[in-house]
Amino acid sequence: MKMILLRRFRVLILMVFLIACSMHIMIDLLPKLESHGNSGCSCPHTPSEQPQSWGKQGWPNKHTLRILQDFSSDPGSNVSSHSLERSPVTVDRAQALGGMEQRADRKRQFIHDATRSKPTKGSRLSVLFEHPLYKKSPPPLTDEDTLFTVNTDIRFDPKAAEDEAWMGEGTVDESSPAGELKAESYPNWLRFHIGINRYELYSRHNLVINALLKDLVTQRITSVAMKSGGTQLKLIMTFQNYGQALFKPMKRTRDQETPPDFFYFSDFERHNSEIAAFHLDKILDFRRVPPIAGRLVNMTKEIRDVTRDKKLWRTFFISPANNVCFYGECTYYCSTEHALCGKPDQIEGSVAAFLPDLALAKRKTWKNPWRRSYHKRKKAEWEVDPDYCEEVKQTPPYDRGRRLLDIMDMTIFDFLMGNMDRHHYETFEKFGNETFVLHLDNGRGFGRHSHDEMSILVPLTQCCRVRKSTHLRLQLLAKEEYKLSVLMAESMERDRLTPILIQPHLDALDRRLHLTLNVLSECIEKEGYSSVVEDDLQENPETDHAHTGSRQR
Ligand SMILES: *[C@@H]1O[C@H](CO)[C@@H](O)[C@H](O)[C@H]1NC(C)=O
Ligand SMILES: *[C@@H]1O[C@H](CO)[C@@H](O)[C@H](O)[C@H]1NC(C)=O
Ligand SMILES: *[C@@H]1O[C@H](CO)[C@@H](O)[C@H](O)[C@H]1NC(C)=O
């Protein structure tokens, strides 16, 4: 009897011990092992610095983590480090990048490159912007044509107005005529908002935009919140001068192509696509993308320490490689496995200037008539009906005015980037139907440089319509002495995170531009020049904003 009890007691002790052991393994050891194998934290941020810095931490490079293998067909690619060498960078930029030991190697390379190829004074970009095609100005603006009437619609928080820091560090150092307009003293983000009109988001040679781009990168971040509703994590940043911006952290390195078997809607958004889209839109002279710049953010100081969002704050952790990581809350991809990690505490991202608050300037959201089905098997109507455009042309607001031509512009813009994700677009409600369409949310471009997705051009092939100004600009950009890829590289060189695109993506832009021009040539051959090309360049005020609403000065 005693023996049995003793034996039972032993068995019990053994059981307890075993349970304790397995609990320990499950709770403590497994996550560590898992994060070694799995965590997105070790995703290399700048491909070029991958070998050195990770080697230093004794982290085998080939473990560049399952997350990369999951999403990239070619994780160990070296392309971008090559492209880095090709891209000439000013000394200025190299200095801006300095101060980070981790980047020392890269910095040396930048300085080296800078001495080799100095930026030419007469840049191609400034030659382009001097071309007559880039000189057309919008018609005189009435109160109906501007988003805000200064001094009536805009009101400030009096608390903000008293604040010394209100004007911010980044205000433009322009020589403004003394006592001219109070607007001169407004922060740049507000001046950007005030400048929005029926025809454009910002004007061509707007110094405020350059100053705003600088603000986006240099303004102190005073608070951070998560943007609700998105499938992927985005942060709303508020600056010292009360400006706000949308931050999309880097989730893909520049050389990771979207795998061919991926659906367009399942790839991550790319921060560099957002930045490149701003430059492309500007070079195409649409000016329908809000100012966006690249910024290196200190995750501890500029996100964790300034957020009032407990839910966000709680998701911060230190990875096994001693990097700061967080994952936030969103519908997909917000978990330890998909954490965003710094290096060790710095993370790249795109910072997009906010448009005016919806309470001040309502926007209308429209379904793109050529949106995809967002279904693995279903096809959209436009995919099966070759005469789909005829139907669209009879449906308001595409039956008159500028809207259809704007959709054609947007189609070309998206095809050049390879963006298949344009399901909706927006306009400012105040301007009714006769206004430009905003090109927001461009994070799904520049996913694949080795493939040209012709289906994106379907609206153009089906409708065979284009603005004359757009057509002429495309032809200009295809010329060897201008060359879209070179202009893009030059424009993006001004960004803090340059190079924004690797060379294969730049080459793809040139290739796709030619494909677009071919489609238009075929259209003209088939239907005749005058029925394809809408002449928006005539000095003809009667057409007013029935067409593009612009005329030559
Ligand atoms: C990357 O480049 C380095 C040096 O140029 C080379 O040693 C290495 O094998 C390359 N890796 C891959 C995956 O191509
Ligand atoms: C980021 O901020 C933290 C906290 O202020 C600081 O300790 C750290 O040195 C910063 N990192 C860099 C790279 O500046
Ligand atoms: C604007 O477009 C809508 C179609 O959504 C249409 O109902 C409306 O009549 C249009 N407005 C004008 C002024 O044409």
General description of the model:
With 553 residues, the chain is of the alpha+beta class. It has a domain at 124-136 and 358-552. 39% of the residues lie in helices and 10% in strands. The protein contains 21 helices and twelve strands. The chain has helices spanning 2-38, 50-56, 66-71, 79-86, 91-97, 104-116, 124-130, 158-162, 188-195, 207-218, 271-283, 299-304, 310-313, 381-384, 388-393, 403-417, 458-463, 468-478, 484-492, 503-527, 529-532, and strands at residues 221-226, 235-239, 244-249, 292-298, 317-318, 324-326, 340-341, 346-353, 363-367, 424-428, 466-467, 533-534. The strands form four sheets. The protein has a five-stranded antiparallel beta sheet, sandwiched between helices. A three-stranded antiparallel beta sheet has the order 5-6-7, with no helix packed on it. A two-stranded antiparallel sheet has the order 9-10. A hairpin with an 8-residue loop joins strand 1 and strand 2. Helix 5 (91-97) runs antiparallel to helix 6 (104-116) and helix 19 packs across helix 20. The chain binds 2-acetamido-2-deoxy-beta-D-glucopyranose (3 copies). One 2-acetamido-2-deoxy-beta-D-glucopyranose (NAG) is lined by residues 100, 298, 300-301, 345-346.
Tell me the distance between the termini. Answer: 109 Å
Structural class: alpha+beta
Mean pLDDT rating = 79
| Cofactors, ions, other ligands | 2-acetamido-2-deoxy-beta-D-glucopyranose
User: Low-confidence spans: pLDDT under 50, at least 5 residues?
Assistant: 31-120, 157-180, 541-553
Give the strand order, joined by hyphens, for the main sheet. 1-2-3-8-4
